[in-house]
Every structure is written in structure tokens, then in C-alpha cells.
């Protein structure tokens, strides 16, 4: 006999979710603390005292005392079990009605297709088709297979890297070349704590301005790191400008000395040295300006990841485009992915991409040999059937405004 319960203990919920095949960070109990502008509840279904379904639900207050609910990347359960799916949503409706809920937006972490970018065959998984049918049988309305990132709350397409032996050998030549360039330029990667949140937030601000998008602020990043603690990973790439400047001065001095002793008739060698002199003078001038502006050490790229279950999610990444010659994103992302694998995680999710698979994000993330995970997408579950259509119109208008 199934039994629907509310206020599932956080520890029990996390233990169930983290071990489940559909485990996802957004269903961790702590995620509700990140989204603290929503109310929150954890509900679940027991079968003979064993938890078989659980959902961390975000609850938004609406005008006139109504609410809407959102289950990001959940509920967590076996979607092949039709009876369980139907029971969960029947029980959910009864409880949600008491909360004056108009509808529940459901975004299960069910993979519809899984493929590499160069795969010709991209067949939908049979299990995903069954899950969609069972959700529809339970009264959920599928929003369809959207391909734009802004069509759904969470992107439907993600680029995710699976752990493998000798990961760097899986990367394309251009990625290896750019990683080598970054190392040659002596870019350093530092694993940081909350003390570097301000520097990371600055890089995110520069990224916002460059891409003309709105992201998050320093306090949000701090909150993420404080809530997830040792399960949050902040990787920052930096340049030791003073060291680099001193090395250029040393090479410049040596070049001048070589020119002084170079015979006049050694035209080819003199030409090479004179070209080198011009190049080093240009580097010396640029580095001096950067040293005066930024100080001895400057952070130029960073990623913020949070780990849960068997997956590390790279939630945010930013860079200073003024230092793009260092190829910092390549080395930073490589180090981030490898650090997640070293911590024992099977997947490192690089985040959303456009469903057309031809945007700038896809092009960059393709450098890291990702598996493309196409999720089934969102469903709407009507609770107040009389007001459902009106509430959907209002929700879409509000989303468009934001």
C-alpha cells in the first residue's frame, strides 16, 4: 500500500535522491535554501515504510491567496511504474488544493536522448517515451520538445562530460592546443573558498556586460558556497603579472645583449633579434600597464560548481576578455572537470546549450568531448482546473516580462 507523506526529513530525502538514477542537484534539500524567495516543502510516497518517491517542491505565492508550485528536475521516482506515477500525482493534487495551488510545474530529470555531437543516430530512449506516457496518464500536460534555452525554466539540452580514463586524450586537437598555450603562458589554477567570491563576482559581471545578459551577484555566489560548503568548488585562474613582467625584462635584456654582440654581416640573425626586440618591447609595455592597473596577481577566469549525487554541476563561469590571449577558459574548464572526476564524481555537467546545437556555447563546450543530454522537458499539472488556463496565460506573461 502506498502512503503519501509531507515534511519528509531532509536527510532521508537526500539519501534517497542522491542514490537514485535521476539524482539531480536541484532536488537536493539544500537547493530550497538557495531559492529562499520561495516557500518549500518535501513530499514523498512510502511503500511498506520504504521511500519510493520524493519531491522537493518550491512554492510561489500568487495574488488573491493562490500559489503555484515548481518541482525542478523532479519528482524523483521510477517513471516506468505507472501505478506509482499516477498515485503520486493524485495524492499531490489533494495536498496542493489545500495550499490553494493553481498548477504544479514539473521538470523531471528524464533523459529523452543521449548522444555525442558527431553521432548520426539520435534515437529517443524507449524508457523516456514510457515515462512521458505515464506522466500524461497521471494528468500532466507535456509542454513539448522546445529547442530554445529560454522556453523552459531549466534548459532542455545539457552538455555533460562522463568520467573516463585519460580524459585529456579524448579532447579534440584545438582544445589540447589551447590548454597547452595556457600552460605555456604560466596560467595558474587555484582552488578557492568564499574569500575569493568578490573576485569571481567581478568576472561574472564582466561576462554579463560582454554577453548582455543578467546573471547573479556576489551575495548569491557566497550563499551557494556557504550552503553547500565542501561540496562547492570554486576554481580560479590567475596570472602572476609581476613574475611575468620580470621574465620579459630578463628576456628583453638578453635580446639587447645579443644584438650588441651580433656581427653586422649576420643579417638573418640580426633581423630575427630586432623582431624579437620589438615584440618584447610591446609585451613589456602591455604588462607594465596591466601591473599598474591590477597589481601583482590578477584573476582572469573562474568556475563555480556544486556536487551532489554522482554529478558535479558547473553552475557559473566567467572570464575577463581583456586577457583572452591566455586561453584561460580552456585550462580552467579542463581543471574543473578533472577536479570533479578526482573527487569521485561520474559526471561533470557543463550546463545548458541551445537545442539547435549550433550556438556559441555549444561550440565552446564541444572542446571538452561532452555527451549531449536532451531531457523530456516540462509538464504542467493542473490542480485548480477551473483557473488553470488563466493561470497559464498569467505565468507566460510574467515570464516574458522577466
Topology:
Elements: E1 2-6, H1 10-19, H2 31-34, E2 39-47, E3 50-61, E4 67-72, H3 82-98, E5 101-107, E6 111-116, H4 126-137, E7 141-142, E8 157-162, H5 173-184, E9 188-192, H6 197-211, H7 218-228, E10 232-240, H8 241-261, H9 267-294, E11 297-308, E12 311-319, H10 328-342, E13 347-353, H11 360-365, E14 371-375, E15 379-382, H12 388-401
Parallel strand pairs: 4-5, 12-13
Antiparallel strand pairs: 1-2, 2-3, 3-4, 5-15, 6-14, 7-15, 8-13, 8-14, 9-10, 10-11, 11-12
Helix pairs in contact: 5-10, 6-7, 8-9
Number of domains as seen in the coordinates: 3
Let me know the average pLDDT: 94
What is the share of helical residues? 40-55%
Question: Structural class, from helix and strand content?
Answer: alpha+beta
Largest sheet: 8 strands, mixed
For CATH, the homologous superfamily of the largest domain is named as: Gcn5-related N-acetyltransferase (GNAT)
- Radius of gyration, Cα only, in angstroms? 26 Å
Keywords: Acyltransferase, Cell shape, Cell wall biogenesis/degradation, Peptidoglycan synthesis, Transferase
Protein name: Aminoacyltransferase
GO molecular function, one term: aminoacyltransferase activity
Family: Belongs to the FemABX family.
Task: Record keyword descriptors for this entry.
15 strands; Aminopeptidase; 402 residues; 7-stranded mixed sheet; alpha+beta; 41% helix; 8-stranded mixed sheet
In short:
The protein is of the alpha+beta class and 402 residues long. It has helices at residues 10-19, 31-34, 82-98, 126-137, 173-184, 197-211, 218-228, 241-261, 267-294, 328-342, 360-365, 388-401, and strands at 2-6, 39-47, 50-61, 67-72, 101-107, 111-116, 141-142, 157-162, 188-192, 232-240, 297-308, 311-319, 347-353, 371-375, 379-382.
